């Protein structure tokens, strides 16, 4: 019963934020902090609705000035609610073009200045990534991306796609890995207190002086650090 009530409330909340966000977005379209504002509107009330406790250890993220690439593991659509509260200032995201078709949310994604990529059109995808690199380099704006490219609820991270790492190298900006504990099997939305999630941002990884020949090594180093950290987060929560 509680599970069903939560889903209904979450749906109503999603619609309400879409309407409110659309009004705010139309008043200041493409403002560099729109994405941060929309993410918080989605996230903070939703955590209470879901009964989830989110512990964020993100000092390295907050200490980094705008103009970097964030990479995070992606588990489900709940990531919007669980990770939205930590989005730093002047941040946009890279998402698949189909996100723009979701009523209200798609319009907010566009008004936030986020970048929609058509992965089925290689030329258009490359053009979008070039635009993203320019945004990083010239506008002091950070980019949030899920390098696995799709939702993944397994214990092992999927192979990372290279786009985020090419962008960071092209712009000469650091990469900040953000790890969220595995929650898909542990959250119990039918309970009053449905569970705990832990988020940890790692130390920035510098890219200055690197070339595209270094992409594979950089990608693997980042993935290994994130895999180790996610395993540690799960172990910590099991012991808590």
UniProtKB/TrEMBL annotation:
Entry annotated with the keyword Hydrolase: no
Catalysed reactions, as listed in the record: a 1-acyl-sn-glycero-3-phosphate + an acyl-CoA = a 1,2-diacyl-sn-glycero-3-phosphate + CoA
GO cellular component, one term: plasma membrane
Entry's EC annotation: 2.3.1.51
Domain Phospholipid/glycerol acyltransferase: 68-183
Entry-linked NCBIfam families: AGP_acyltrn
Name by which UniProt lists this protein: 1-acyl-sn-glycerol-3-phosphate acyltransferase
Taxonomic source organism: Pseudomonas coleopterorum
């Amino acid at each position: 019963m509680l599970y069903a009530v939560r889903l209904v409330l979450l749906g109503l909340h999603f619609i309400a934020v879409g309407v409110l966000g659309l009004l705010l977005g139309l008043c200041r379209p493409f403002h560099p902090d729109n994405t941060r504002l929309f993410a918080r509107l989605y996230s903070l009330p939703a955590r209470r609705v879901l009964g989830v406790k989110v512990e964020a250890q993100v000092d390295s993220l907050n200490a980094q000035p705008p103009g970097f690439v964030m990479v995070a593991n992606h588990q489900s659509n709940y990531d919007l609610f669980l990770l939205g509260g930590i989005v730093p200032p002047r941040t946009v995201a890279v998402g698949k073009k189909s996100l723009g078709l979701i009523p209200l949310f798609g319009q907010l994604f566009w008004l936030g200045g986020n970048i929609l990529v058509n992965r089925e059109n290689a030329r258009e995808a490359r053009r979008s990534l070039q635009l993203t690199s320019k945004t990083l380099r010239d506008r002091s704006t950070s980019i949030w991306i899920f390098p696995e490219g799709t939702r993944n609820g397994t214990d092992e991270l999927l192979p990372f796609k290279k786009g985020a790492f090419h962008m960071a190298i092209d712009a000469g900006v650091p990469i900040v890995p953000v790890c969220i504990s595995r929650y898909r099997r542990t959250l119990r939305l039918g309970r009053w207190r449905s569970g705990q999630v832990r988020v940890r941002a790692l130390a920035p990884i510098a890219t200055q002086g690197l070339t595209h020949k270094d992409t594979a090594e950089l990608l693997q180093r980042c993935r290994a650090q994130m895999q180790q950290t996610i395993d540690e987060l799960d172990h910590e929560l099991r012991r808590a």
